[in-house]
Amino acid sequence: MNYRKRRLKKHTVELDITAFMNLIVVLVPFLLTSVVFTRLAVLELNLPAAASGPTEISKSLQLEITIRPRAIEVGDRNAGLIQRIDSTAEGYDYHALSDLMRQLKTRFPDKLDATILSEQDTSYDTLVQVMDAVRSAQVAQAGSHARVELFPEISVGDAPPATRAGL
């Protein structure tokens, strides 16, 4: 038996990664420049407490801000509507809302909480801007602008259906 011996020639192949390195050199700076750096802000909210029994009727202000499709209604849960701020052609009038919140804060300086009620189709941006106007305001003092705290303890809920006159 004559067996032929086969010899396999083993060739060492060098891995050419220059094309891959060129891709990485171009891709990394592109990805780093296209990254969007965002600033996350956390708003602390209080959910309305579930009524477990009869609640005590308070004589103080129970501030409610209701976001409607064409207006923002500011009211007292016990006394009713305080003011209705109609939308302009550009959208909601957050400046007028902020001015009203400052007036209410001067009348009720110890009041810290407010409830914002929004309808289902209210945009997130609108809700956040209303929260910002209720929480704090920017005031000019001696040539500079300072932020003052108005009603920082905000609760969020669903708005009750609008009455026919309140549309």
Supply database-style keywords:
Nucleotidyltransferase, domain 5; 26% strand; two-stranded antiparallel sheet; 6-stranded mixed beta sheet; alpha/beta; 3 helices; 167 residues
Mind explaining what this structure looks like?
The protein is of the alpha/beta class and 167 residues long. It has a domain of 99 residues: Nucleotidyltransferase, domain 5 (2-Layer Sandwich). The protein is 25% helix and 26% strand. It has 3 helices and 8 strands, in the order H-E-E-E-E-H-E-H-E-E-E. The strands form 2 sheets. A 6-stranded mixed sheet has the order 1-8-5-2-3-4, covered by helices on one side. Helix 2 runs parallel beside helix 3. The radius of gyration is 31 Å and the shape is elongated.
Given as residue ranges, the uncertain stretches (5+ residues, pLDDT < 50) are: 52-58
Order of helices and strands: HEEEEHEHEEE
Task: Give the spatial strand order of the biggest sheet.
Answer: 1-8-5-2-3-4
- Radius of gyration from the alpha-carbon trace, in angstroms: 31 Å
CATH class category name of the domain at 60-158: Alpha Beta
Oligomer: single chain
The residue fraction in helices comes out at 25-40%
Number of strands: 8
User: Biggest β-sheet, characterized?
Assistant: 6 strands, mixed
Structural class: alpha/beta
Query: What is the CA–CA distance across the termini?
Result: 105 Å
* Helical segment count: 3
* CATH architecture annotation of the domain at 60-158: 2-Layer Sandwich
Q: Could you tell me the CATH topology label of the domain at 60-158.
A: Nucleotidyltransferase, domain 5
Shape: elongated
Strand content: 25-35%
- Whole-number average pLDDT? 81
